[in-house]
Design a protein that fits this description.
- The structure holds 2 protein chains of 2 kinds.
- Chain A has 16 helices and 19 strands.
- Chain A is an alpha/beta fold.
- The relative contact order of chain A is 0.13.
- Chain A is globular.
- Chain B has one domain: Alpha-Beta Barrel (Aconitase, domain 4), CATH 3.20.19.
- Chain B contains 8 helices and 7 strands, in the order E-H-H-E-H-E-H-E-H-E-E-E-H-H-H.
- In chain B, strands 4-3-2-1-5-6-7 form a 7-stranded mixed sheet.
- The chains are: A alpha/beta, B alpha/beta.
- At the A-B interface, helix 2, helix 3, helix 5 and helix 10 of A face helix 4, helix 6, helix 7 and helix 8 of B.
- The structure holds iron/sulfur cluster (SF4).
Chain lengths: 469, 212
């Protein structure tokens, strides 16, 4: 047999294929959020109902306030309030379960879906958000779609796709201490480029990937889109099954154990061929941060800001010059000499309990030199972190501990980085203006963000973690 | 959706790689209802100074590119966020075709849903088209039937998925198309319920009792 994991996921969802390659696929899980208002307006225009409200889940995350929550009516900004209210009205009208502002399970869509077991291995998951590939960390086939496609899924519970090519990224060996999935994915993107996986469904494999927890795999798959991939996934294994057992929305009892056998059988065959293969040695992965305005602008923390004059490709050099100017850096400057103005720990990339634990390991007994915000990925994670006392470590260090939402990842709720300010951030995009007009974003792992907070400049977390983890 | 067959129009060079959808339309504009129009948001922060007025830094705002309906850019155009608002901004501005070596895939899908053609050419061809426009070339002709782009003394073939080409040529709406396959969809659901009984999600209680 020579099927890949992706082949199996694809095949089990094909409703029909047209001769020119367009294929109609069944959708198992559809997540909607405040940004889905265009799509609800579209089906209203067409007079169509939601085909399968039982397979549609609403989550309030993109616009929700993270501070001083006093119900929806208490949201001070009228535009923001309107966006949350629209989602409530649209989901209520169509009988869709909403994890809304006041729900004890509220959180970021790509955190809530996996942690409740709404996402399962072998399911096809879509959402009007480009980081939907996150769910691939649990062995799902998941991808982001646009508003017209959201309307299509609402109306039909199906989606048209062309089968992407296959790509395997294997990371073998063991990463050094203090490193995590964020360092791994930033290294991968720096290697293959921001469009290195365009047109491909990526399977992450190898012993270093197997060694990651489900949380780490979610982080890894989350940033697949930053390499242009259509989707990213890790085959389900014993780690996945243990993680899912007992999750609220997953099947339970004997049915779970039977399902689990099927999930394990979805893995790629030994002889399976991929259209593209990339191999990385885990031992070569360094603590990695981005210096520029594309996720491919990533380097080890020990490096210097690159010099465009040394780059032969004129277009590439121009792009670098522009990024260096926007970021307010100097070519040749040591990255560890770059002072930061604030830090952010959160987003669907790095806001799970492990992320909070690793930032707290650096911050315990230390103070942050700059203001900071920690926004856990869900209300459940927030409660767990508080039980573990992590909130007290953050507040003692002088950073704010707030409620869950997309927050400073995209700034739609008002949590923004001011123009010209530099933020060390656990998020996934360092695009110009992503965290606010004129904001300068450096992406890195939670431990590295914590290290930047303590040092007041970009810093290596490893010495600060020595003897602590 | 209006069919797309052939277009001869002013073309605008945008010689940048990795123009992400956060650049095409910054997030802060995205709560705007579509009916209000998105054209003013197109490439907002790249085009406008602190006073909100166009700086003329990019060709889109120069008089000789007035009325442009085609943009030629470098690789990975429309990467990043899935926001269809990026396509709304282009479409509302009047753009009907973007030519580049590669596109963010969600962006390309969104373009298709809105009748905007994303035409793929090689990097060398994109550079040649950009050079010709910057040397004073003004209009290009895009022929979707023949999959060609021509202008001045240049003519290149472009790539597009065959299914996307058919949809654009005919102006088909995806939802109507899919609803015509309702028997196939129903048959799939019967097969699937037997093959994957575990795929049905368990309900969790709704604290507000808003939904069943
Ligand atoms: S946290 Fe950021 S990337 Fe994740 S869903 Fe929210 S806006 Fe998108």
């Amino acid at each position: 047999m020579n099927k890949t994991l992706f082949d199996r996921l694809w095949d089990s969802h094909v409703i029909l294929a047209q001769e020119h390659g367009d294929t109609l696929l069944w959708v198992d899980r559809h997540f909607v959020h405040e940004g889905s208002h265009h799509a609800f307006a579209r089906i209203a225009e067409l007079g169509l109902p939601v085909a399968r409200p039982d397979l549609t889940f609403g989550v309030a995350d993109h616009y929700v306030p993270t501070r001083g929550r006093a119900g929806v009516a208490g949201i001070p900004d009228a535009t923001v309030r309107g966006m949350v209210e629209k989602l409530m009205a649209n989901t209520a009208r169509h009988g869709v379960r909403l994890f809304g502002l006041d729900d004890p399970r509220q959180g970021i869509v790509h955190v809530v879906g996996p942690e409740l077991g709404i996402t399962l291995p072998g399911t096809l998951v879509v959402c009007g958000d480009s980081h939907t590939a996150t769910h691939g960390g649990q062995g799902a086939y998941s991808f982001g779609i646009g508003a017209s496609e959201v309307a299509h899924v609402l109306a039909t519970q199906t989606i048209w796709q062309r089968k992407p090519k296959s790509m395997r990224i294997r990371v073998e060996g063991a990463m050094g201490p203090g490193l995590d999935a964020k360092d791994m994915i930033l290294t991968i993107i720096a290697r293959i480029g921001a469009d290195g996986a365009v047109g491909h469904a990526v399977e992450y494999a190898g012993s270093a990937v197997r060694a990651l927890s489900v949380e780490g795999r979610l982080t890894l798959c989350n940033m697949s889109i930053e390499a242009g991939a259509r989707t990213g996934m890790v085959a389900a294994d014993a780690t996945t099954i243990d993680y899912l057992r007992g999750r609220a929305c997953a099947v339970s009892g004997a049915a779970f154990e039977a399902a689990a056998e099927g999930w394990l059988a979805l893995a790629s065959d030994g002889e399976a061929r991929f259209d593209k293969e990339v191999a990385l040695d885990a031992a070569e992965i360094a603590p990695t941060i981005t210096w520029g305005t594309s996720p491919e602008h990533a380097l080890p923390i020990t490096a210097r800001v690159p010099d465009p004059e040394q780059v032969a490709d004129a277009a590439k050099a121009a792009h670098m010059r522009d990024a260096i100017a926007y970021m307010g850096l100097r070519a040749g400057q040591l990255l560890t000499d770059v002072a930061v103005d604030r830090v952010f720990i959160g987003s669907c990339t790095n806001s799970r309990i492990e992320d909070l634990r690793s930032a707290a390991a650096v911050l315990a007994g230390r103070t942050s030199k700059v203001p900071g915000l920690v926004s856990p990925g869900s209300a459940s994670i927030k409660r767990q972190a508080e039980q573990e006392g992590l909130d007290r470590i953050f507040t003692a260090a002088g950073v704010e501990w707030v409620d869950s939402g997309c927050s400073m990842c995209v700034g739609m709720n008002g949590d923004q980085v001011a123009s010209g300010e530099r933020c060390a951030s656990t998020t996934n995009r360092n695009f110009k203006g992503r965290q606010g007009a004129g904001a300068r974003t450096h992406l890195m792992s939670p431990a590295m963000v914590a290290a930047a907070a303590v040092a007041g400049h970009l810093a290596d977390a490893r010495p600060m973690l020595a003897g602590r983890t | 959706m209006d069919p797309f067959t052939q277009l001869t129009a002013v073309a605008c060079p945008l010689p940048l790689a990795n123009v992400d959808t956060d650049q095409i339309v910054p997030a802060r504009f995205m709560s705007t209802p579509r009916a209000q129009g998105y054209s003013g948001f197109l490439l907002h922060d790249m085009r406008r100074g602190a006073d909100g007025q166009p700086t003329g830094l990019i060709a889109l705002d120069r008089p000789e590119r007035a009325g442009a309906q085609i943009i030629v850019a470098k690789r990975n155009f429309g990467c990043g966020s899935s926001r269809e608002a990026a396509v709304y901004a282009l479409a509302d501005f009047g753009i009907r075709c973007v030519i580049a070596p590669s596109f963010g895939e969600i962006f390309a899908g969104n373009s298709l849903s809105n009748g905007l053609l994303t035409a793929r050419v090689s990097e060398t061809e994109a550079d040649a088209l950009l050079a010709a426009l910057e040397a004073g070339g003004k209009t290009l002709t895009v022929d979707l039937e023949a999959q060609t782009i021509s202008g001045g003394d240049q003519a290149v073939r472009f790539d597009i998925d065959p299914a996307a080409r058919l949809r654009l040529l005919n102006g088909w709406d995806a939802i109507q198309m899919t609803l015509s396959f309702k028997d196939e969809i129903a048959a799939f659901q019967v097969r699937d319920a037997a093959a994957r009984p575990w795929a049905k999600p368990q309900k969790v209680s709704d604290p507000r009792g808003l939904t069943p």
